[in-house]
Each structure stands twice: as structure tokens, then as C-alpha cells.
Amino acid sequence: MEVRVSTPTNARNRAGRRVLTTCVLAAWTVVVAPAVTGSESGTQTPAQATASQARRATSAAPRDHPAKQYTIEQFLATESVSGAIFSADEKRLLYTSNRSGVPNVYGVPVSGGASAALTTSNESTYVVAQFPRDDRFLYTRDRGGNELNHVFVRLIDGREVDLTPGDRSRASFMGWNRDRTAFYLQINERDNRFFDVYRYDADTYTRAVVFRNEGGYIPAAVSGDERWVALAKPNTTNDRDIYLWNVQSSALTHITPHGGRAVHTVAEFDPASTWLYYLTDQDSEFVRVRRYELTTGKHEDVERAEWDVLFTGFSAKGTYRVTAINRDGSTVVKMLETATGREVPLPVLPAGEVTSVRISPSEKHVALQASGDRAPANLYVWQVGAKSATRLTDTLSREVDPDDLVDAEVVRFTSFDGLVVPNILWKPHQATADAKAPALVWVHGGPGGQTRVGYSPLIQFLVNHGYVVLGINNRGSSGYGKTFLASDDKKHGREPLWDCVEAKRYLASLPYVDASRVGIIGGSYGGYMVLAALAFRPAVFDVGVDIFGVSNWLRTLRSMPAWWEAQRQALYDEVGDPERDIELLRAASPLFHADKIRRPLLVLQGANDPRVLKAESDEIVAAVKRNGVPVEYLVFPDEGHGFTKKKNQVAGYGAVLKFLDAHLRDKGSPGGP
Fold first, then answer.
1. DSSP 351
2. Which residue among 129, 301, 528, 588 sits deepest, i.e. has the most Cβ atoms within 10 Å of its Cβ?
């Protein structure tokens, strides 16, 4: 069992909030990873917080020397790790690392020591599951970022078996049955629009269809006793239901009928297959934990917080349940004894806080992932009840002194209509009232993602080179209640963008910011916001950095991959129907207003992106060039919606700094533009 909250995208998926838009646009590897930190707002809700309430995300060590500046190569010498899984004998931890420059699967002894590569693919490869009685494991990868992920078995002799038939199929792992003799995959090979559920024998890999998906459902979980399949059904971006498929009787039951709009999201079945645990915001601003008794149909509350619950799940035997809470841009993880509800104190780790938990099958050991603003994620193993944990990785580049990095602050400002907007602020060490710094408004993906505290190599790189960065959580962001989340529906290019304009005004009020040098940067939906800012408010920002952003909503909505069919109507509800809302979408699409763009623009794009097609970037670049505006354009032939390979990150992020230095930092200086 694992609680993983390593990106804003995951946070959104786990909470079930607008899963469709998150899946469509928000998978951007640059977005800030969450850390678990304290908050001065305590038990206050976002609505109670004010612009004057800010807090340090972590506590910086005293510095007795000027901050050293580092190259992008030095920053990206840092290792990225994720997905820790125990081996069958619990003597080794499997995880994904980009140490070689491309994500692959590694293994490390739980007692500590050197790690070894278990896969050596040139394509990004991620571990998903360990077989219960031997050293086989499952992993997934696509081709060049095309998101047609296959699931593979690595055999004991090192050979691999592809469990996913067809070049156009997409598959994902769903879990094991109770005795670990079989596992489940969902695959869209029969009909590319919908995912069927398949049961695979763990020894022979023979398979059988368990659920044939004819109704546009999203398979979410299979019970350990193999009797039930839990299914999600998006109605709109703010309304989502859960259905249960009885494998024996083939009966389908709608278990969350309700009035009004409410999001219901599957968490998981308990190990005894007695209850289905789920998350919901019905009759509440925030997401809480409820459960449904499979035999009686009874619903009851389990856990409630004053912020969204991101995820809840059980250890293999059910002794423990782990819950993650999204508290004001940070993640709070709790491990509870299921029988008593007593919280099990997790060990205090030296840098950052716990952001994910993996409990071993024996329930004796726990793999922890911890990170902070100045500390990228590291892996630890802890024996339950012990006072300390064993650190297994040391991921920060040895050439980077963490004292030269900065901590984040949660800050708020009041927008044009009185709405209080939360943000994450990074201030360079060298920025002072006497040495005012250029600044950037950083816009997350989504539309409904969230910028959070935590380590981001690109943000720290830019801040290290003297740029103030304000990560705005404009209206429509997740984590601040369902009213805030829904406040951008069919308003894209307007009110959420106007929040970004107000963010510039907020930056201008800071004594260490040069208000004449403020740019805007973002990826995916954030890239769209960059283009919208330059087209619809052309005099506000001095430069824009667009990383695979939408320029033409009509094309993006019409060209969605087939496997998004279950979310199509809900996405139309969020952004607009490309057949019925043509004028609305034309008005919101920067491409049709590109003649207004007058500020320098940098565009980065993956050639294989299935979410925001390369044509989106090609056409906006060509249109802006016709204005005689400085435009730079980088296309990566082996990437999709997110840059996972270090060589491309070095080239792309290095280009971002070079562009900003030329067109923002040196704006108005002798020899500058």
C-alpha cells in the first residue's frame, strides 16, 4: 500500500477533483513537488486566511557567505527518485531514479548501501509492483512521451515480457488479489475509447476479461476477494459518481446518487473486502473520507479534515491506514492503527518531511519518501516502532550547497473582485530593496492543478540566478475548497488571467522586486495562461515562457486522444464544447488574437505530446513572428507532455534562463533589447 503525493497532478487525481482536466493538461514534470511542512494558519481554512498571513515552509540554516550561483547542469546532477516498493523478501527496495539521465528501475538494500540499475531502457521506465514470492517485478513505459504506456514483467533472468498487446493500446496496473496469485490491468485494446479490466495469472500471464467497459466508466479498483470492481463516472468537472460491478452476477450498482454537484472518488477496498473507502466533498467545501459497506449498502464517515484529504489506503493486512491531507500547499501524512484510530508517530527525518509511505507486506517495515524546499526527495526505511530510519539515497547534487537555495513562503493577496488568492513565493538571497530583482508569475497546469511548496530544480535554478518567483494558485486551483475550484468554469482567458495580472501588482508591492521587469511562465495549462496574458493583456508582462501550452482550444478539444472519451463531456463542461461554444473558445484561444502579442516569447514543446499537439506551438510561434516580436522555439523529438530526460531538461531549462537574462534581466540595460 502506498500514499504517493509527489506532484500537484497526483494531488488532484487522488482527491478526485476534476480528474479529467488534470489528466488532460497537468502532467508537467517541472511543477513543484509537495513537501510536508507546518503552517502558521493552523486549523484556519483558506477563506479565513488573509494576505498578511505568510509562513516559512522550512527553516533555513544561517548563512555566513554569499549565495553561489550554479549552472543548470549542476542543478540537474541531482537525482530524482520515486515509487519505492519492497522486494518479496523485504531485503531490497525497488524504486525509479533518473540517475542515468533517463528514469529507470533501481534496487537498493534496505540496510543501506549501493544501488544497482535493474532496467536500462532509453525510454522513461517506472516501477509499479513486485511479485510476492520471487524477484520478478512489473514496470511501465511509453515511447518518447506518447503516453501509450505498456506494462512489462522483468523476469528473474533479466528478460522482459510485454503484457500489453498492440502498438496503439494503453495499459495501467490496478493491483493484486488477496493471495497474490493474480493481478489486474486496465487496457483499452478492444475499444481505444474505454478501458476494460483484465485478470492476469501471476505465473502464466494468461488473462481473462473481468469487466467489459461499454458505458464510459473509469476502472478504479478491484476488491481483494475478486468479487467487486469499483468504477468512476465523471459527470462534470465538479460532479463525479462511483459505481460497483459485481463480477459474479454482472450487476452494476450506482452507490453515490445525490442531489446537486458533488465529487466522489474511489480510494480502495479494505483488505477484508468488507468496505469500499472513498473520498467525497458532498455537503462540504472540502474532501473527507467515507466508506460503503458492500453487503448492506450502508455509508458512513471515517475521517474529516479542514482541508482536502488527498488519499487514504491500507497496509496489506489492514493493521494500518495512511491518510494524506493537502494543507495550504503542503502535505500532511498520518499513519493510523486501524483498530484503535491511534496515530503512529513517524520518525523525524533530517531534511524535509514525509511525503509518501509504503508499508511492507509483513507490516514490519515502512519505506518513506521525504523532501523539502531545499532538499529533493530521498528514500528512507523505518522499522515500525524504531526511533530512527535508515537513509537509502542522497539525491542532491554534491556540487550544490543547500544553504544557497531558498525556502518558500505561502502568501496571499486580494484580487480585483475581493477574492483572496493563495500563492507560493520564492525570494532570492540577493534580492534587497537596494538591489531589486526581476520577477516571474509562475502558473501551474490543470486547469485545476496547484503550485505547492517543495523542491523544484527549475524554480530553484531561476531563484538562484536572481529571479523572484510567485507560484500563483489562481481561481480554479485545487486545494482551497470546491467553490474556489469551480470559480473558473468557462471563464478561461478572463477571471483566472486577471488573477495573474493582480499577482504582478502584488509582486510590485514587494520592496525587493523591480516592477518594470516582471514576466510570466507556465507549463501545460500554465503555458496557455502565458499565451493568454501576452495576447489579452499585452502590456502587463514583459516576457512570456510557454511550455507546451494550448494556443487553440478548438483544436485541443477536438483532438483529444481516444482514451479520454470517458472524461470528454466533463472537460467540455469545464472549458467549452468545440461544436456548441465555438465563439467562446475562439475568444479564449490566444492563436486567434496573436496579432496583439508584442512581448518576447519562448516556447518549449515535446514533439510526441498527445495532450497539447505540436501544432499548437508551431502555429503560435509562426503567428507571433509575423508581428516582428522576438520568439525562440525549442522542440524535443523524444518527449511528450513533460520533459523526463535530463539532456532535454538541461537544454530546455538552460534556454529559459538565457532567454530571461536577455529579455527581462537586461531589459533597458546598455546593449540589452
1. S
2. 528
| Contact in structure between 532 and 520 (CB atoms under 8 Å) | no
In terms of Cβ atoms closer than 10 Å to its own Cβ (0-12, 13-18, 19+), residue 285 is middle
Give CA 527 to chain center in angstroms. 16
CA 513 to chain centre: 29
DSSP for 184-200 reads EEEEEEEETTEEEEEEE
How far apart, in whole angstroms, are the C-alpha atoms of residue 122 and residue 102? 7
Side-chain-facing half-sphere of 82: CA atoms under 13 Å: 19
Contact status, residue 290 vs residue 302, Cβ threshold 8 Å: yes
Tell me how crowded residue 611 is: count the other CB atoms within 10 A of its CB: 25
- Cα-based distances in Å from 182 to 145, 188, 416, 455, 582: 29, 20, 56, 38, 48
pLDDT digits (tens, 9 = 90+) for 532-544: 999 999 999 999 9
Residue among 234, 495, 471 at smallest CA distance from 373: 471
User: Which amino acid, 626?
Assistant: R
- The one-letter amino acid at 469: V
What does DSSP say about strands 544-547 and 631-636: parallel, antiparallel, or unpaired?
Answer: unpaired
pTM: predicted TM-score of the whole model, two decimal places: 0.91
**What is the C-alpha separation between 48 and 42, in angstroms, rounded?**
11
Residue 18 pLDDT exceeds 60: no
What percent of the chain is helix, strand and coil (3-state, nearest 5)? Answer: 20, 35, 45
Q: What is the pLDDT of residues 459-484, one digit of tens each?
A: 999 999 999 999 999 999 999 999 99
